[in-house]
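Working notes for the structural subgroup meeting. M.R. asked for a predicted model of this chain before we commit to crystallization trials. I am recording the input and output together here so anyone reviewing the notebook later can reproduce the run.

Input as submitted:
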Amino acid sequence: MKKFFTTLSNIWKIEDLRVRITNTLLFLLIYRVGSYIVLPGVNPATLVNQQGKEGIAGLLNMFAGGSFSRASIFALGVMPYISASIVVQLLGIAVPYFAKLQKEGESGRNKLNQWTRYLTIGITALQAIGYLKSQIDPKTQMEIAEPFFTVLNVFVLTAGTMFIMWLGEKITDKGIGNGISLIIMVGIIAALPAAFYSEFVSRNASAGGLVAFIVEIVALIGVVMFTILIVQGTRKIAVQYAKRIVGNKQYGGVRQYIPLKVNAAGVMPIIFAQALMFIPATIASVFPKIASNGILMSLSNYTSWGHNLLFAILIIVFTYFYTAITINPNQMAEDMKKNGGFIPGIKPGRSTAEFIDGVISKITLPGSIFLAIIAIIPAFASLVGVSSAFARFFGGTSLIILVGVVLDTLQQIESHLLMRHYDGLMKTGRIKGRTAIPAGGTGQPVI
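Returned structure, recorded in token form:
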């Protein structure tokens, strides 16, 4: 406990880290305040019984931090931006122009970001129309008549999503952690206390309910521990560096390792897959005549077999896709060769790249499958009697995002502490005399 408070004190002593954490908290506070600002022309008193809290609507409400059910200016959250990011990245594979931009470095990324913003505006406008038609009863409109009500609120919802996107970029730039992921995490955490209380009350009201509630808590802790193992699991590849004599000092000559994560893609596959799973519900809301389609209804129900099967497949596909664009075996092999490093028993260069690529392919398959299993656990929890609101924290998108974002943010704080020679929050860095090499492939030891 003493070490914990000492670490907190060290965090506060580092000015840059202190400013970044303060900026992050302020930006997140702005987001939470905005989530309570209701759309113009909507009567907040009539919203409680009108907003869907089950199925896809409930998931949207959770990701938006409750803004969806409150008809807030941030009701659509960041999901349109994530959907646009998915489309742009897929275009980078299918369209030569976008593939060229991906290879142009910083200028290319800026152009891709601009395309993503434009596409976000279009997707948000379409989703805003569907949201207003399906979630806002015309009787809740106060003194604003159609069609001005729809036009005004489509503009407001679009502006709200763009503002959240801007907040996310500012958190990434001026704060700590990934801004978009932190915004999603804060929205999920906001729903956690109410879900715990609701489940406790409902279980306590039934015979033997308290025991069932304790069992649920134990099961939740077990799922959290399993999720942490998947997120933190690594496959270490030994690397040997040749000895070099510079002046009176000897460099290299020790065995180090490359830690390849079992889930190198992090939380992005689950976010991307979830964003695509919102499409059937969006189509049903924009085009009510085809909402009765059996397949569409099945895909819109998050407890159905069709929804969970497609969800799991998308997660596996996006895990491979995002791992492929995140880790470059050729670059890693080239960097090792330049720094005099080699994998014992493997020739430097192309053979090393093929070996690393083979290892990544082998560990990504079980990692993606376990990720998919965690993602669909809430559906099975609902089938055994756990309430819908509480079941979402038994796994799925919410738990993976919470664990992934928290660990990623802690690791960034850790790096700030280690750079200034303070003790870190977690046990990282040197292990039994060895030094970790980042999986990005710089080839330089992390001290």
